[in-house]
Write a structure and sequence with these properties.
Strand content of chain A: 35-45%
Number of helices of chain A: 3
Largest sheet of chain A: 6 strands, mixed
Oligomer: homotrimer
Number of strands of chain A: 6
Shape of chain A: globular
Structural class of chain A: alpha+beta
CATH topology of chain A: Nuclear Transport Factor 2, Chain: A
Largest interface: A-B, 26 and 24 residues
Order of helices and strands of chain A: HHEEHEEEE
Chain lengths: 143, 143, 143
């Protein structure tokens, strides 16, 4: 379905999809976040680690990752920018964009890091809704 | 009028509206900022405080708030991200998005805080232009 | 050609153009970045300095500017926000927007500065592609 859609419609749809998805993640609704992936979706949020696979796998990994905040309460907000879309021959769309994590700790101490480049492969389900088939997060880092 | 508009057109219109509105605010043109609200618009920029009401009330509140910078010169820029729109049955649109305030002080000292979630209720005037009926800013904060 | 295009299409096209352009710049592909300017394009990235002129001139200036990072390895990401477009009578478009430079140094030390306001004059080439005729970056600074 992406093939017949204008770039304008697709670009806005991806922005809107990302906005809802990250508001769900940052709000702590991990099952709803995982439901924005395909059934066999892959999520690699930390380089050099194997991806979390499938919706249950993604929820499990998010719960594991967030254990670090059990004794360190935070509010996290994921910001995206410079979204670049490349439709692919198989009907999927590759999205490449920048991301930053805004973290607020007590006393309104705000840190903004790491800086990341994210690559999504986006597809549609049977009803035409966007889903993430794979998401790979690369952190900016120097040796 | 929002009901017959495509989500694509609406989404871009809100982005463009926000961009102009915040460039006006950050440029210090408080009357022009207030004119982007309805006549009876409400603006709650600090949680737990009563909203500023009406265009004159918003200008008065902005002047009061900015007194703190009289002896502490700053340049402020409001950044928005992850815009999520929900059309409502009465024809208005609820916009939920993230905001950060980028503040530059002398010697190019830049701070970025607080992290906020903002909720707008947007309506149209008789000529079809977007206006804010209410804006509520919630600051990310932990006890 | 901009005259008959909807604001929605134009706005998304500029966002997409900026995204690709800045991914090229941040990826270090200066010739590809320069090719997004007109043949006689002007790029003023630092106030009070004369603009770099022409694609070769822009590449030369970028190489000169980046010499400062030869002994100070960094990854830089340019973020844009609050894009405001004004079509002009001659068919060009003025884009005014905020920019921040996100810089990652070793040990994942991230700094975000300076805060800038950028003004582009955008035109189309014979094939209808957007190009920058001029870009002027103003850094937020107080005396």
């Amino acid at each position: 379905m992406i093939g017949t859609q204008s770039l304008t419609d697709l670009y806005v749809e991806v922005q809107h999809f990302h906005a809802r998805q990250m508001q769900l993640l940052d709000g702590g609704d991990f099952p709803a976040y995982a439901a924005t992936f395909t059934e066999d979706g892959e999520f690699t949020h930390t380089p050099q680690q194997p991806p979390a696979r499938g919706r249950d796998g993604i929820v499990t990994e998010l719960n594991r990752f967030h254990e670090r905040f059990a004794e360190d309460p935070v509010i996290r907000r994921h910001w995206f920018n410079q979204l670049w879309l490349e439709p692919r021959e198989d009907g999927s769309v590759q999205a490449t964009y920048y991301a930053l994590v805004v973290t607020t700790r007590p006393e309104r101490n705000v840190t903004i890091a790491p800086s990341c480049v994210v690559r999504d492969v986006l597809v549609r389900d049977g009803e035409g809704n966007l889903l993430v088939r794979s998401r790979t997060v690369d952190h900016d880092r120097l040796a």
